[in-house]
Write a structure and sequence with these properties.
25% helix, 11 strands, alpha/beta, DNA Methylase, Chain A, domain 2, Rossmann fold
Length: 329
């Protein structure tokens, strides 16, 4: 059991893959969204995937392990959402994580969530969550981290909670989690994919096996006024904007010029751009999230693919944290 961990709210398994690459054995995972099941099972063949609603899974059905990892659904905490936090049904799923943690009592846990969780309106809720972690028997540290400093070519701020069981008399030190000496750019991440992409069929339907590079297809369609309220283009020598869980809000490929501001919260595409404005492809988004090319996403509608990728934990980021957790073992 020395390296065995379980994964909750697993999604397509970015966090799981990072821990696997760091030497952990993800033996069991839980994901309730049926659109994700095929992708998870094909890419994590050694992991048992439990497809039930986590609220209906008795702790006794979950294998013993040394660690629990996962991030509960983030929409209720998101800065882009209504920020209902713990008062939202999805926010309360965080408490299911704590229930299982309390019952299984592993050596450590890692929980990930969006930066919106730290908004001042959620201070009481976060304090209660920390108290629940401590009541379950853990010494907890947490910090807001940006993935661009940990081998990910993307600005992506996430809150990481890490706890060690009180019996271990240890506490995770984020100050010793050293950032990378260099920051990866879009050119390094996706430059070799340029020119091989395909537009989706009927705006958002997959080309399937026609794609020479698996999943290298992009959603088409109009851009909303909200989308056009700020620049959405990062250039080749920069890191990407955050990869969103929505194809319609995917960043623009760096082949195009930066957008031009023409008013308050109003930007337009540059008519002098040498190349057209298009969304990042599914594969480009996956590369920016540091999924390897052999990780294949399965879907009929590209919206499902962008959602899987945007909701995932960046693989390299997960691996760096997992490697440091391993030094405590």
């Amino acid at each position: 059991m020395d390296n065995k961990v379980i994964s909750l709210f697993s999604g397509c398994g970015g966090l799981d893959l990072g821990f696997t690459k760091a030497g952990f054995d993800v033996i069991w995972a839980n994901e309730f969204d049926k659109q994700i099941w095929h992708t998870y099972e094909r890419n994590h063949p050694q992991t048992t995937l439990d497809k039930r609603d986590i609220r209906h899974i008795p702790s006794g059905d979950i294998p013993d392990c040394i660690g629990i990892i996962g991030g509960s659904p983030c929409q209720s905490w998101s800065e882009a959402g209504k920020q209902k936090g713990i008062n939202d049904d999805r926010g309360q799923l965080f408490l299911e994580y704590i229930r299982i943690l309390k019952d299984k009592q592993p050596r450590f846990f890692l929980a990930e969530n969006v930066s919106g969780m730290l908004h001042k309106k959620h201070q009481v809720a976060v304090a209660n969550i920390l108290a629940a972690f401590e009541e379950a028997g853990y010494r907890v540290s947490y910090r807001l981290l940006d993935t661009k400093y940990y081998g990910v070519p993307q600005e992506r701020k996430r809150v990481i909670f890490i706890g060690f069981h009180v019996d271990l008399n240890k506490k995770f030190c984020f100050d010793k989690l050293k950032p990378a000496s260099n920051i990866l750019t879009l050119k390094q991440a996706i430059g070799d994919l340029w020119g091989c992409e395909l537009p989706a069929i009927a705006r958002s339907k997959t080309n399937g096996e026609i794609c020479h590079i698996p999943n290298h297809e992009y959603m088409e369609g109009d851009f909303s006024s909200i989308y056009m309220s700020r620049n959405r283009v990062r250039l080749w020598d920069e890191v990407s904007f955050t990869i969103q869980a929505s194809g319609r809000h995917s960043p623009i490929h760096p082949q195009a010029n930066r957008m031009i501001q023409v008013g308050k919260d109003k930007w337009i595409f540059d008519s002098a751009s040498p190349f057209p404005y298009r969304r990042l492809s599914v594969r480009e988004s996956a590369r920016i999230q540091t999924f390897p090319d052999e990780f294949i996403f399965y879907y009929q509608d590209l919206a499902a693919a962008y959602k899987m990728i945007g909701n995932a934990v960046s693989v390299n980021f997960a691996q760096e944290i997992a490697k440091y957790i391993k030094t405590y073992s």
